[in-house]
Amino acid sequence: MAWALVARSTAMHGMVDGLAQVAAPMAMTLAAPTFLGMWVGMMVAMMFPTAVPLVAAHRLVGRRRGDSPWTTAALVAGYLSTWSVAGVVPFAVLVLLRDVATGGGETEWLPVAAGGILVAAGLYQFTGWKTVCLRTCRSPLAFVARHDFAGGARSAVRAGFLQGTYCLGCCWALMTVLLVVGLMNLLWMAVLSLVFIGEKVWRRGWALPRFVGVALVGLGVAIALHPPLLGVVAEIPDLGTTSSM
After folding, report:
1. What is the rounded (10 degree) CA torsion for 132, 138, 144, 145?
2. Are the C-beta atoms of 177 and 118 separated by less than 8 Å?
3. Distance CA 21, CA 103 (A)
4. Which of 13, 94, 96, 125 is the most buried (most CB within 10 A)?
Protein backbone atom coordinates (compact mmCIF):
# COMPACT_ATOMS: atom_id res chain seq x y z
CA MET A 1 0.00 0.00 0.00
CA ALA A 2 2.83 2.41 0.83
CA TRP A 3 4.31 1.86 -2.64
CA ALA A 4 0.94 2.59 -4.25
CA LEU A 5 0.64 5.85 -2.31
CA VAL A 6 4.17 6.89 -3.29
CA ALA A 7 3.43 6.16 -6.96
CA ARG A 8 0.24 8.21 -6.78
CA SER A 9 2.04 11.10 -5.09
CA THR A 10 4.76 11.04 -7.72
CA ALA A 11 2.21 11.17 -10.54
CA MET A 12 0.27 14.00 -8.91
CA HIS A 13 3.14 16.24 -7.87
CA GLY A 14 5.98 15.36 -10.26
CA MET A 15 8.35 14.81 -7.35
CA VAL A 16 11.08 13.20 -9.41
CA ASP A 17 13.49 16.10 -9.19
CA GLY A 18 17.22 15.65 -8.71
CA LEU A 19 20.48 16.81 -10.24
CA ALA A 20 19.54 15.06 -13.47
CA GLN A 21 16.43 17.24 -13.78
CA VAL A 22 17.98 20.64 -12.98
CA ALA A 23 18.17 21.65 -16.62
CA ALA A 24 14.43 20.93 -17.07
CA PRO A 25 11.43 22.71 -15.51
CA MET A 26 11.07 21.42 -11.96
CA ALA A 27 7.67 20.81 -10.44
CA MET A 28 8.56 20.61 -6.74
CA THR A 29 6.48 23.37 -5.13
CA LEU A 30 5.27 21.51 -2.04
CA ALA A 31 5.18 23.09 1.39
CA ALA A 32 7.43 21.51 4.00
CA PRO A 33 4.66 19.68 5.97
CA THR A 34 3.25 18.12 2.79
CA PHE A 35 6.68 17.09 1.61
CA LEU A 36 7.57 15.54 4.97
CA GLY A 37 4.31 13.59 4.96
CA MET A 38 5.18 12.20 1.53
CA TRP A 39 8.73 11.56 2.71
CA VAL A 40 7.48 9.44 5.63
CA GLY A 41 5.33 7.44 3.20
CA MET A 42 8.39 6.93 1.06
CA MET A 43 10.40 5.73 4.06
CA VAL A 44 7.66 3.28 5.02
CA ALA A 45 7.76 1.87 1.50
CA MET A 46 11.55 1.63 1.32
CA MET A 47 12.79 1.06 4.86
CA PHE A 48 10.04 -0.65 6.83
CA PRO A 49 10.53 -4.06 5.14
CA THR A 50 14.05 -4.06 6.58
CA ALA A 51 12.67 -3.21 10.03
CA VAL A 52 10.28 -6.17 10.16
CA PRO A 53 12.82 -8.39 12.00
CA LEU A 54 13.26 -5.63 14.61
CA VAL A 55 9.50 -5.31 15.11
CA ALA A 56 9.14 -9.09 15.37
CA ALA A 57 11.99 -9.32 17.89
CA HIS A 58 10.53 -6.52 20.02
CA ARG A 59 7.09 -8.10 20.00
CA LEU A 60 8.58 -11.46 20.98
CA VAL A 61 10.37 -9.94 23.96
CA GLY A 62 7.35 -7.80 24.85
CA ARG A 63 4.97 -10.76 24.78
CA ARG A 64 7.18 -12.68 27.18
CA ARG A 65 7.28 -9.60 29.44
CA GLY A 66 3.54 -9.13 29.24
CA ASP A 67 3.77 -5.78 27.42
CA SER A 68 0.88 -4.43 25.41
CA PRO A 69 1.14 -4.51 21.58
CA TRP A 70 1.08 -0.71 21.82
CA THR A 71 4.66 -0.80 23.04
CA THR A 72 5.73 -2.26 19.71
CA ALA A 73 3.69 0.41 17.96
CA ALA A 74 5.67 2.94 20.00
CA LEU A 75 8.88 1.32 18.76
CA VAL A 76 7.72 1.81 15.15
CA ALA A 77 6.81 5.43 15.89
CA GLY A 78 10.29 6.05 17.29
CA TYR A 79 11.88 4.42 14.27
CA LEU A 80 9.87 6.54 11.82
CA SER A 81 10.58 9.72 13.79
CA THR A 82 14.29 9.36 12.97
CA TRP A 83 13.58 9.29 9.26
CA SER A 84 11.05 12.10 9.59
CA VAL A 85 13.70 14.39 11.08
CA ALA A 86 16.15 13.32 8.37
CA GLY A 87 13.63 14.42 5.72
CA VAL A 88 14.49 18.06 6.38
CA VAL A 89 17.79 17.60 4.52
CA PRO A 90 16.39 16.35 1.18
CA PHE A 91 13.66 19.00 1.34
CA ALA A 92 16.29 21.73 1.64
CA VAL A 93 18.29 20.20 -1.22
CA LEU A 94 15.22 20.02 -3.46
CA VAL A 95 14.39 23.66 -2.77
CA LEU A 96 17.97 24.56 -3.66
CA LEU A 97 17.82 22.56 -6.89
CA ARG A 98 14.51 24.18 -7.81
CA ASP A 99 16.03 27.63 -7.32
CA VAL A 100 19.03 26.66 -9.46
CA ALA A 101 16.72 25.41 -12.21
CA THR A 102 14.58 28.55 -12.27
CA GLY A 103 17.65 30.78 -12.12
CA GLY A 104 19.06 29.42 -15.36
CA GLY A 105 22.78 29.68 -16.01
CA GLU A 106 25.40 27.11 -16.91
CA THR A 107 24.83 23.48 -15.95
CA GLU A 108 28.10 21.88 -17.08
CA TRP A 109 28.90 21.23 -13.42
CA LEU A 110 25.92 18.87 -13.01
CA PRO A 111 27.52 15.63 -14.24
CA VAL A 112 30.63 16.26 -12.15
CA ALA A 113 28.52 16.98 -9.05
CA ALA A 114 26.33 13.94 -9.70
CA GLY A 115 29.35 11.74 -10.29
CA GLY A 116 30.98 13.04 -7.11
CA ILE A 117 27.88 12.21 -5.05
CA LEU A 118 27.79 8.67 -6.43
CA VAL A 119 31.51 8.17 -5.80
CA ALA A 120 31.14 9.44 -2.21
CA ALA A 121 28.15 7.14 -1.66
CA GLY A 122 30.17 4.21 -2.98
CA LEU A 123 33.19 4.95 -0.83
CA TYR A 124 31.03 5.19 2.31
CA GLN A 125 30.15 1.53 1.80
CA PHE A 126 33.71 0.66 2.83
CA THR A 127 33.85 2.75 6.02
CA GLY A 128 33.85 1.57 9.61
CA TRP A 129 30.67 3.58 10.30
CA LYS A 130 28.82 1.60 7.66
CA THR A 131 30.07 -1.65 9.17
CA VAL A 132 29.07 -0.74 12.75
CA CYS A 133 25.61 0.44 11.74
CA LEU A 134 25.00 -2.57 9.50
CA ARG A 135 26.08 -4.96 12.25
CA THR A 136 23.47 -3.44 14.57
CA CYS A 137 20.77 -3.57 11.89
CA ARG A 138 21.52 -7.25 11.22
CA SER A 139 21.10 -8.20 14.90
CA PRO A 140 17.61 -7.00 15.90
CA LEU A 141 17.14 -9.40 18.83
CA ALA A 142 20.49 -8.44 20.34
CA PHE A 143 19.61 -4.77 19.88
CA VAL A 144 16.29 -5.16 21.72
CA ALA A 145 18.01 -7.04 24.53
CA ARG A 146 20.57 -4.25 24.97
CA HIS A 147 18.39 -1.18 24.51
CA ASP A 148 14.95 -1.98 25.89
CA PHE A 149 15.59 -2.95 29.51
CA ALA A 150 12.86 -0.93 31.18
CA GLY A 151 10.00 -1.94 28.93
CA GLY A 152 6.94 0.20 28.33
CA ALA A 153 6.08 2.68 25.60
CA ARG A 154 8.66 5.31 26.55
CA SER A 155 11.51 2.82 26.42
CA ALA A 156 10.18 1.47 23.13
CA VAL A 157 10.15 4.92 21.54
CA ARG A 158 13.76 5.49 22.60
CA ALA A 159 14.78 2.08 21.25
CA GLY A 160 12.99 2.73 17.96
CA PHE A 161 14.61 6.13 17.56
CA LEU A 162 18.05 4.70 18.29
CA GLN A 163 17.58 1.83 15.86
CA GLY A 164 16.35 4.33 13.28
CA THR A 165 19.56 6.28 13.83
CA TYR A 166 21.66 3.19 13.17
CA CYS A 167 19.53 2.49 10.09
CA LEU A 168 20.10 6.05 8.90
CA GLY A 169 23.83 5.64 9.47
CA CYS A 170 23.73 2.47 7.40
CA CYS A 171 21.64 3.76 4.50
CA TRP A 172 22.00 7.56 4.22
CA ALA A 173 24.78 7.43 1.63
CA LEU A 174 22.80 5.18 -0.70
CA MET A 175 19.78 7.45 -0.25
CA THR A 176 21.82 10.33 -1.71
CA VAL A 177 21.66 8.48 -5.02
CA LEU A 178 18.03 9.61 -5.21
CA LEU A 179 19.17 13.23 -5.05
CA VAL A 180 20.96 12.54 -8.32
CA VAL A 181 18.38 10.51 -10.25
CA GLY A 182 15.23 11.99 -8.67
CA LEU A 183 13.94 11.75 -5.12
CA MET A 184 10.90 9.66 -6.01
CA ASN A 185 12.27 7.80 -8.99
CA LEU A 186 10.31 4.60 -8.45
CA LEU A 187 12.74 2.38 -10.35
CA TRP A 188 15.73 3.51 -8.29
CA MET A 189 13.65 3.38 -5.09
CA ALA A 190 12.88 -0.27 -5.80
CA VAL A 191 16.53 -1.07 -6.55
CA LEU A 192 17.75 0.60 -3.36
CA SER A 193 15.04 -1.13 -1.32
CA LEU A 194 16.27 -4.50 -2.55
CA VAL A 195 19.84 -3.51 -1.65
CA PHE A 196 18.76 -2.48 1.86
CA ILE A 197 16.89 -5.74 2.37
CA GLY A 198 19.83 -7.74 1.06
CA GLU A 199 22.32 -5.96 3.30
CA LYS A 200 20.26 -6.39 6.46
CA VAL A 201 18.43 -9.68 6.00
CA TRP A 202 20.29 -11.84 3.49
CA ARG A 203 22.60 -14.38 5.11
CA ARG A 204 25.46 -13.34 2.82
CA GLY A 205 24.55 -9.68 2.92
CA TRP A 206 27.90 -8.69 4.46
CA ALA A 207 29.50 -8.79 1.00
CA LEU A 208 26.82 -6.66 -0.64
CA PRO A 209 27.99 -3.19 0.58
CA ARG A 210 31.37 -3.62 -1.08
CA PHE A 211 29.85 -4.84 -4.34
CA VAL A 212 27.43 -1.91 -4.39
CA GLY A 213 30.23 0.47 -3.40
CA VAL A 214 32.40 -0.56 -6.35
CA ALA A 215 29.41 -0.25 -8.70
CA LEU A 216 28.57 3.27 -7.49
CA VAL A 217 32.16 4.48 -7.72
CA GLY A 218 32.39 3.15 -11.26
CA LEU A 219 29.04 4.72 -12.22
CA GLY A 220 30.02 8.06 -10.69
CA VAL A 221 33.30 8.19 -12.58
CA ALA A 222 31.55 7.20 -15.81
CA ILE A 223 28.96 9.98 -15.45
CA ALA A 224 31.64 12.59 -14.72
CA LEU A 225 33.59 11.53 -17.81
CA HIS A 226 30.55 11.04 -20.06
CA PRO A 227 27.82 13.55 -19.03
CA PRO A 228 25.02 12.18 -21.30
CA LEU A 229 25.04 9.05 -19.15
CA LEU A 230 23.41 11.05 -16.33
CA GLY A 231 20.19 11.43 -18.28
CA VAL A 232 20.19 7.75 -19.20
CA VAL A 233 20.69 6.63 -15.60
CA ALA A 234 17.93 8.93 -14.32
CA GLU A 235 15.43 8.21 -17.10
CA ILE A 236 12.04 7.14 -15.72
CA PRO A 237 8.59 6.53 -17.17
CA ASP A 238 6.27 9.51 -17.47
CA LEU A 239 4.08 8.61 -14.51
CA GLY A 240 1.71 11.48 -15.10
CA THR A 241 1.03 10.25 -18.63
CA THR A 242 0.77 6.67 -17.49
CA SER A 243 -1.75 7.52 -14.78
CA SER A 244 -4.00 9.34 -17.22
CA MET A 245 -4.19 6.43 -19.67
Report:
1. -80
2. yes
3. 14
4. 125
